[in-house]
Specification:
The protein has 389 residues and is α/β, with parallel strands linked by helices. It has two domains: 257 residues, Dihydropteroate synthase-like (TIM Barrel, Alpha-Beta Barrel); 98 residues, Sulfite Reductase Hemoprotein, domain 1 (2-Layer Sandwich). The protein is 40% helix and 18% strand. The protein has 13 helices and 15 strands. The strands form three sheets. The protein has an eight-stranded parallel beta barrel, surrounded by six helices. It has a five-stranded mixed beta sheet with strand order 11-12-13-14-15. A two-stranded antiparallel ribbon has the order 1-2. A hairpin with a 2-residue loop joins strand 1 and strand 2. Helix 6 packs parallel to helix 7 and helix 7 runs parallel beside helix 8. The protein is globular. 48% of the residues are buried.
């Protein structure tokens, strides 16, 4: 399999890019403050073949948990930290990890008056001081607002531009030990964005993934669509299969990633149609430590079962597990659910319908789904003919 001539980036005991084998990684879904559970899951992911294991940090208490996780897993697991909204935590987490991932769109949440360039330099300085690699992680649901304004109606253009600008900032700070990811829940957009970025910067290693791919098997198929089209073009140096799974099944992400790689290397390609949203598309975020209620996974499964009758309708339902990604990443869906500790927020596009208990939201969703189906001319005509019959 030919590969783009990307530079090498060392992260712990693995090397990303430079012709090295594609690194499969995953993310812990346990609470970071639960050190014992997170260590157990990190080891399970590493044992399954994950070269890198990511954990989320969003508070000082999480930082303390991360320090304990590092002590217990040192030498066994290459740790990546996912900075959330507080970029200044980079100073506290850098001593405990091999790689830091930051999201350009989240740099606007704290110290809004401070230039983004200064915040990037702060993160770079911490990574350099402690020997960490970086990932610039651009996500469709939290795009840098400045880039989004310059590309109205062009989400791919906005994500690619954001990635390119932050590559420039990191390199301006004299740092080369970084990779980039540009993710979307639509495999076609993942392919387009990564192809466009790779054409501009073929030297930068790319982390591939379809965000909120959802439940298996559909989530695996969506991911395979993107990976087959990108890896066969030589694009991609590390991957993650993001699936909605219970905690005890998280290693399946790693196994599925390895299976896709093995098939591509061996020339075994499944006949997968191009993802064109001609049928009902259910997207749900990967279960991770940000999920505020574990019922989220059950809800995603119930939504999948309930909506089978609407499979032939070109609609998208998004099921998100937390407040970090939920509000923004449901905006582009026809119907969206983002889950809080006790209630689920139901949206119709960008409009909020209401907040409902977990045991009542499914029926509310069904009503909204029926309304969207009936609003389509073809559906109305079918119902009209049905009544005449």
């Amino acid at each position: 399999m030919g590969r783009n001539p990307t530079r090498e980036v060392k992260a712990g005991s693995v090397t990303i890019g430079g012709g090295h084998p594609v690194v499969v990684q995953s993310m812990c879904a346990t609470k970071t403050q639960d050190v014992a559970a997170t260590c157990a899951q990190a080891r399970a992911l590493a044992s399954a073949g994950a070269g890198l294991v990511r954990v989320a940090v969003d508070s000082r208490a999480d930082v303390e948990g991360l320090a304990g996780i590092r002590r217990r897993t040192r030498g066994d697991v290459n740790l990546v930290v996912d900075l959330q909204e507080n970029y200044r935590l980079a100073e506290d987490v850098a001593p405990h990890v091999d790689k830091i991932r930051y999201n350009p769109g989240h740099l606007y949440h704290h110290e809004k008056e401070k230039p983004v360039r200064e915040k990037v330099r702060f993160i770079v300085d911490q990574a350099r001081k402690h020997g960490c690699a970086l990932r610039i992680g651009v996500n469709c649901g939290s795009v840098d607002p400045a880039a989004a304004e310059r590309f109205p109606g062009d989400s791919v253009g906005a994500t690619v531009q954001s990635a390119l600008e932050h590559v420039g900032m990191v390199e301006e700070a004299g740092f080369q030990r970084f990779v980039v990811s540009i993710k979307d829940s639509d495999p076609a957009k993942v392919v387009e964005a990564n192809v466009r970025f790779a054409e501009r910067r073929p030297d930068v290693p790319l982390h591939l993934g379809v965000t909120e791919a959802g439940l298996p098997p559909d989530g695996v198929v969506k991911t395979r669509i993107a990976f087959e089209q990108l890896l066969t073009r030589g694009i991609g140096d590390t991957i993650r299969v993001s699936l909605t799974l219970p905690n005890d099944r998280k290693p399946e992400e790693v196994h599925e990633g390895q299976r896709i790689l093995d098939d591509i290397v061996s020339g075994r390609f499944r006949s997968v149609p191009k993802f064109e949203n001609k049928h009902l598309n259910i997207i749900s975020c990967p279960s991770c430590s940000r999920v505020e209620n574990e019922k989220f996974v059950e809800l995603a499964q119930e939504v999948q079962r309930m909506s089978v009758y609407a499979r032939e309708h070109a609609l998208t339902i998004a099921v998100m597990g937390c407040r970090v990604n939920g509000p923004g990443e449901t905006d582009d869906a026809d119907l969206g659910l983002w889950c809080g500790p006790t209630h689920v927020n139901l949206k119709r596009g960008k409009e909020t319908v209401g907040a409902f208990r977990y045991d009542e939201v499914l029926e509310k969703l069904r009503v909204e789904l029926d309304g969207l189906i009936f609003a389509k001319p073809a559906a109305r005509e079918a119902m009209r003919k049905g009544r005449k019959g």
